[in-house]
Fold this sequence. Notes:
By secondary structure, this protein is an alpha+beta fold.
Amino acid sequence: MTGSEWRVFVAEEPLSCRRLKVxxxxxxxxxxxxxxxxxxxxxxxxxxxxxxxPEEIQLLWHKDLPMPSxxxxxxxxxxx
Length: 80
């Protein structure tokens, strides 16, 4: 786990994005546990995403983030 990954979850200032998407692999159990504890949901598991490492499975985690009070989002619904 890098420091930047941790800072996303402990940021004092609200982020200006609506959804966090993170990628890890099945071989990184510590990262998987961390993202699950932070409320991320595993949305996608892709076998053969890494041709050079066929034993690894790409895991994509998502977490919806609350909008900061008074913030608006100009992106259409479904576009992040």
